[in-house]
Amino acid sequence: MARVLLPDAGVRVRRGRRRDLPQVQSLLGVAGGDRLARYFRRIVADLGSDFYVAEDREGAIVGLVSVVYARSLVRGRLSATLDGARATPAVLDGLLAFAEERARRRGCARLTAAPDPEDGALRAALVARGYRIGELLVTEIAAS
Questions:
Q1: Distance between CA atoms of residues 16 and 2, nearest Å
Q2: Using one digit for the tens of pLDDT, what is the confidence trace for 5-28?
Q3: What's this model's pTM, rounded to 2 decimal places?
Q4: Paired strand residues for 69
Q5: Which domains does the chain have, with CATH numbers?
Q6: Which one of 23, 49, 58, 112 is at 20 to 30 Å from 134 when CA atoms are compared?
């Protein structure tokens, strides 16, 4: 998919690339390393997910959105889950609309989101877009 302009936010959205890692790390506030670089390469290459970045006019990454897809036996079609999104409020709404459209184009009728409880900006943006709070059961599984 070619770059998409979000006119209200003044940014362009494009698929994430391997060379975006340093800016993505900065945006997410995470430390780097070889393990993260390998993991990031896999995410960017994975056709079972959508990872897009928003660039300003100078080419700086000012936002990102990630959606993961899985075939659902129960739903009988693809299911989409918002993996995460980061941006300023003006850009965030456009990225969420973009993610919804991508999921729709891939045949999903629903996009679920489980934002981090501490990510008030994302939670507020989702509620403002009409997302409703439902029942979600979550457990943390320690890596072995």
A1: 12
A2: 776 768 999 999 999 999 999 888
A3: 0.86
A4: 80
A5: 4-128 (3.40.630.30)
A6: 49
